[in-house]
Amino acid sequence: MEINILGNNHSILDQYLAEIRDVAIQTDPLRFRENLYRIGELFAYEISKKLKFNVSEVQTPLGIAKVPTIEQQPVLATILRAGLPMHNGLLKIFDRAENCFISAFRKYTDEGEFEIEFEYMASPSLDNKVVILSDPMLASGRSMEIGYKALFSKGTPSHVHLAAIISSREGVDYVAEKLKDENVTLWLGAVDDEMNSHSYIVPGLGDAGDLAFGEKIDSK
Asked: What is the pTM of this model?
């Protein structure tokens, strides 16, 4: 598995990462969603460098220009609900892409522990297609693993790009181990070293879904 960490390189991405972490800025849900959206656009740009291009002839008012164009648009997949703003940023760049939506959630026990429950998936055929699966937070890594495996119920992708804005070190190690033999590239904005007893990344940013869309009642 190839792993690419895009943050901490003194680019505008670092500014957006700082803002989504900042508790003062997090009080504005619109700003928070917009930053996830913009980060999705930057991820799309970086991932596009790994896609296949053909040279096409384009008619201009003055002649013919030979320019590289994407051979095949990727399929954009995300895990509801937190993934939607980042997904929309990716879709802004890959504007003719097909889309896939996966519903998965933390189901808590009375002891406060949880399992990741896969609930629903809407997807086109994924046979021989490049898929970008995005989720803003990669904590334990189990949601990403379940989302990845769910893709194969709709066909066999030629390659899968996994994209997360902030990850725990444990989550990176988990996904790298579970998917080590798969045709996968992992894209990350930042990697934090810790995860607390509730499987939230520290320092992280909190619950991305709640910050974007409002607090929810956890399933019991």
From this structure: 0.91
